[in-house]
Amino acid sequence: MAKKKDRGTPEVNAGSMADIAFLLLIFFLVTTTIDTDKGIAIRLPPMPEPNQQDNNIKLKERNVLKVLVNAADQLLVDGQPMSIKELKKTAKEFIDNPMKDPTKAESPLKAVISLKNDRGTSYNLYIQVHNELKAAYNELREAKAQNDYGKSMEKLPEAQQEEIRNYYRQVISEAEPEDLGGGN
Amino acid sequence: MKLEKKKKPTPAISTSALPDIVFMLLFFFMVTTVMRQTDLKVKVVVPQATEIQKLEKKSLVSYIYIGAPSDNYKAKFGTAPRVQLNDAFATPKQVPEFIEKERAARSEAEVPFLTTSIKADRDAKMGIVTDVKQELRKVNALKLNYSSSKRSEVY
Predict the structure, then answer these.
(1) Over 50: is that where the pLDDT of B47 sits?
(2) Residues whose CB falls within 8 Å of the CB of residue A92, separated by 6 or more in sequence, listed in order
């Protein structure tokens, strides 16, 4: 009896603490989603007013790059069938027009890319087309930043970034949806 | 001397610091975690792209999911891609209502910065996406983001 009193309060066994903590940890590991949301940002054109007259501004043929995508996921760029791999190069040449080709845009500011897709076009290809067009603009901007300031876009101050963005202003006009056919 | 040393048993590794380490990890995950708010009823594998941007403020983003119903719902809803808003299947016609609700839940100052993120499956057709886009234009929700994952190779 006397011996027992000498022992004092026994220490709490903390051996299972780790197990409990692990259990909680695994729970949070499973439920967690560290998916930073990323994607292609675009701005939709506002809906035309119902009583608005047809205000299709006549654009010069040479200033418009027509990109059509049909239901079979085939591309037609200014009347020429094309693979998605060539689109960026074509778009860059069209916008910048370094050779002053009379069939391409007069100046980057006047260049308009008109995108038209079918209801049967796959979403994946649509995104790829948007991606390639955006890539074309981004590469042109980057080239101009390097050329004018000797720096990449990200390192330039905001005002100069804005200037370059306005020089190569991305104008993608998406046609009102309609059926182009060419698939099921 | 030598003999004595050999007789000593190897001491057990002290594990008393283990709970501390694990708790540290636990707190890290507790802080960084964002619980999935809606459970997905559609299968979405977003397309891949190279020119992607991060969405800035998560609280200002409303999500629209488009994809084929997942296996549990196949029997009831078929396999054609559908729209999911919040927790329920919907039609593109319900998008304006959804956007209005999202707007009502935020303060007025935040409304112009609201972004809609379309998380559509790469196998979906543009028809349904176009319908959703048209509905968004009707309610003047013009800031749009096509959710995509990073692709490293460039064409």
Answers:
(1) yes
(2) A136, A139, A140
Query: Best mutation site among A40, A82, A130, A132 for testing chain B: the one with the most B CBs within 10 Å?
Result: A40
pLDDT score of A5 more than 60: no
Cβ pair A174, A45 in contact under 8 A: yes
Nearest CA in chain A to B133: A44
Question: Is the model more confident about B109 or about A33?
Answer: B109
Indicate whether B97 pLDDT > 90. yes
Residue A88 has pLDDT above 70, yes or no: yes
Q: How much is the pTM? A: 0.76
A44 close contact with B: CB closer than 8 A: yes
| Beta carbons of A18 and B15 less than 8 Å apart | yes
What is the mean predicted confidence (pLDDT) over B33-38? 66
User: Residue A32's closest chain B neighbor by CA?
Assistant: B33
Cβ–Cβ gap A119/B125 under 8 Å: yes
List the domains of chain A with CATH numbers.
61-170 (3.30.420.270)
- From the list B125, B148, B73, the residue with the least C-alpha distance to A41 is B148
Residues sharing a CB contact under 8 Å with residue A36, sequence separation 6 or more, in sequence order:
B54, B55
| Pairing of the two strands B82-85 and B42-43 | unpaired
Please check whether residues B50 and B89 belong to one and the same domain.
yes
Same domain, B89 and B23: no
Between chains, do A25 and B29 touch, taking CB under 8 Å as contact?
Answer: yes
Contact B126 A122 (CB under 8 A): yes
pLDDT tens, residue by residue, B23-34: 888 888 778 776
Angle at A154 between CA A45 and CA A95, to 5 degrees: 50
**Which residues of A are less than 8 Å from B113 in CB distance?**
none
Q: Which domain holds residue B104?
A: 42-149
